[in-house]
């Protein structure tokens, strides 16, 4: 199910198809050394068990290939690249038994060249012989995401990270529109401009508690007269020298020239009112139409419906809003090893993505119709995808090429169009984007939690933004408090938190399987290939719940 299963796709897959092994805090390891003939040489690294296994299967030929190639990665290319073309590995043919001859140019081989018992199948090849653990779409030795053409990579190119985001944003069309009651429109996008249905305010009103007065003072209040409260109809007109008590928001009576605040008035026993502070004409009266006139455009189409927008719409006379339909998303959690509750045990782990993705998708404006746990069941996955009516199906895990990674084979079976098949980003490079039908899409997330979040922000967020009609956020860059190592060819996404001085601090615990750094983060920093120096600005992908907190 998860990206870790790339590790069985071939000896070099651990270094090229996986994110590098993490240090104790999730910092990148140096997995490529053993595959490149560097410090982790094949003869001294723990990977020497691979050499022993291949020598057992292929005999002297692997030793000769390794010595000719100068490194294990080249040794694999020589051994499997040449032998695989004829369907032979180390002298074994299609049937898995000893073949009559070796590869072209090496002449006959006798049984002593092979240390594998007759009838035993060779482990993994690029030709017609395949280990039963690997499907026909298995990348084979030396494959992986990242830089096409780099040593140890498959011929299938991955998509550069910026290109993948842009492609995901163009892959869909804006959904249809509909009327939603104000209480149901929050988080959706205005499909048409918000136009005032009335003047705001719709009548002259008092801005303060006090007295409505007419002309210069002093003013006389009528005996036994009642004050004017908010919500009451039009009051009796005032004449010069008269006043009447008034509450905030109440309709100002005709003839009133100002409102005298209660704290600025002195009322004598004879019910004569004197001003104790300077009073100007029109003071503390909100005139009709001060905020807008009927027919004025208050907001343009495409704006997000926030709580403030709901308040403005209600004040302007709306009971419902025409908004773009919220994208419907279904989440399919794959993997037999995942537990829904309790402590990890018996080789099984807790499902971290199921509880996390639903709320995250809601923050992105989606309507999550269901979160279903399917395990590693190819038929269940096929049925779920064939029957789903969601605009976007999100799968977790199963995007690699291991024995139970069923996403790609199922997409082929459905006749889906693969738009993005791997992205040059760490973590998360096995992510994918497919078009199931003209109006339905699938985003396949890797199984590791931080890698899945990388896929969510790389492919799902731009797609959902387009479906919902949301505008793309303006790019945001900020300097980093320290240098961040980069992958030689791929973009890295690293959790960061805002600090004082307008800088962002990279966080520890940023390995592909870790969430500790992400839980404390405000954003993910986009680290280009080769890394970023201390003080250099980096693009930030803000997390939806992390508002701009300013310096801390």
From TrEMBL:
Residues 20-29 have a biased composition (Low complexity). Residues 330-466 form the MoaB/Mog domain. Its EC number is 2.10.1.1. Keywords: Magnesium, Metal-binding, Molybdenum, Molybdenum cofactor biosynthesis, Transferase. Catalyzes the insertion of molybdate into adenylated molybdopterin with the concomitant release of AMP. PANTHER family: GEPHYRIN (PTHR10192:SF5), MOLYBDOPTERIN BIOSYNTHESIS PROTEIN (PTHR10192). This is Molybdopterin molybdenumtransferase.
